[in-house]
Design brief:
mainly alpha; two-stranded antiparallel ribbon; 4 strands
Amino acid sequence: MNYKLLGKILGKIMILEGILMMAPLAISIIYKEYNKNVYSLGGVKNILAFAIPIVLLFIIGFALQFTKPQRKSLYQKEGFALVAMVWIVMTLFGAIPFVINRDIPNYIDACFEIMSGFTTTGASIIDDITLMSHSTLFWRSFSHWIGGMGILVFVLIFIPESKDGSAMHLLRAESPGPQVGKIVSKMRATARILYLIYLGMTVILASILMIGPLIDTNAALQATGIDYSGDKVFHALITAFGCAGTGGFGSIPNSLQYFTPFAQYTVSIALLLFGINFTMYYLILIGKIKDVFRSEEIKTYFSIIIAAVGLIFISLKLGGIIDSFAITQNYDTTEEAFRHSLFQVASILTTAGFSSTDYDVWPVLSKMVLVICMLMGAMAGSTAGGIKTSRIVIAVKGSYINIRKLINPRYVPKAKFEGKLLEEKTINDVFAFITMYAGVFVLAMLIISFDPVNGTTVIINSDAGAGREVTHGFFSNFSAVASCMSNIGPGFEAVGPYASFSGYNWFSTIILTLTMLIGRLEILPVFILFSPRTWKKI
C-alpha cells in the first residue's frame, strides 16, 4: 500500500473539509448565535463548534502534506480503499460540531446524522428540528450538496493528471452505477464539467425557490406555533442543497408538508432532473440531444416514473374500493392527490426522502410501489442512490439471456444496452452487485432485529391525525435498512416520514451508519477497506 500518498490525499480532503466548514461557521455568525444563552459557555459554543474542528482539520491536513511518497500513482485497490477512508474521516470530523454545540450530544448519533448528510440519505435521529441552531441545520444540509456529486470528484479537479489511471480508480469507486467513464479525454476536465453542471442546476433551483412562494406560513404557524415568514433565503438554500444531492434534510418540521404547492411541484421536478445521469446534460450542452432521446436508461427511468405515479394516484382515488386498509389520509381535490403522488415518487425514486404528506397511512398498493422505488433508485451517474435503473435493465436482459440459453444451448446472445452489445462480464458484475446488496441488506436486518426497540410503540403526529400509535416491528426494520442502504431517509411505520431513527440503540445506530456508507459507495470500496488482504504486503 502506498501509505504516504494515501495520507497526502487524505490530508487534502481534510483541508477541504475545514474550508467547507467555514460556511456553517459564517451562518452561525450571521444569525448571531454567539449571543444565545445556551449552556455554560453561552452561544460561544455555536462558534467553537465549527472553529475547533476547522483548526484540527487544518493542522492534521497540512502536516500530512509534508509526506513524500516514492510512488505517485494508486493501484485500483488503493483507490477504492482511499475512497472509503475519505468518507469515514469526513464523517468523524463532520460530527464534532453537533457534539460541541450540544444539538446532538451523543457522538455516535452525531456520526449517524452527518453520515446521513454526506451520503445524501436524509435519515435523522433528531426528534424536534425546531431546537436545532441555524448553523447545525445548514451544515447537515450542506453536507448533502458536498456528498451528492462526490467528495473525491471535486478533488480530482486539483489532482494532477496521471497516465496510470489513478484518477479513474477514484472516480469509479465513488461514482454510482455500473458504468463510469470520461465524458472528455481528461479526468480533470470531466470533473470540472460535472461540477459546473451540478453547481449551475443548484443555483437555478435555489433562485426559483427564492423568487416563488416557498412556505405556507399560515399553515406552518397554526401547526407548529413558529412564524416562518422570514428567512426565505435560508430555507430556499437548505431545500436546494437537499434536492441537488437528493438528500432529504429539511429546515422546518414535517419536511416539506408546509411548503406551497408551487414549491412542492418545483421540488418534484428538480428531484427528477437530479436523478438523471449528468452525462445527459453534457450531451445536451454540446448539441447531441438525439443521443439523449435514444438513451435506453432514460426511457426506462421516465417509464417507471409515469407507471409509479399512475398507480399511486389511482390507489389514492380508489383506495376504499381496491384496499380494505382504513385510509386516514384524505385529499380534497384530484390535484392534491396527484401532487402528493408525483412528489413522493420523485422523492423516493431519486432517494431524496423529502415528504409532503404522511404516506405511511396510504393504501397498501401505494406503499408497495414506494418500496419498489426505494430499492430501484434513479439513473447511474446521478446523485441518487439505490440499485440504479441501468442495473435493473441489465439484470432483466441478463436473466432473459440465461433463460434462452437453457432452452437452446446454441443461442448466441445479442442483447444490447445503450446501443452496445452486453458483455457477459457486465451482466455478471450486475448480478454480483445485486447479490452483495441483498446479502448486506439481510445481515443488517438480522442485526437490528435484536434491538430492544422492537415491539415498542411510537406515537406519530402527522397531517393524517395526531397521536397515531405505531408498533416498531418487521416493516419498520425492513424500511430502515432499505432507506439507509438506498440512501433515502425516512421509511415506514416507526421510522416513517413523521418519525425518526432515535429509538435504535448505539449498536444498531452504528450498523445503520455503516449501511449508509456501503450503499453510497456501492459496497466494494468498504469491503476492500476492511479486507485484511488489502493491507498485506505482496
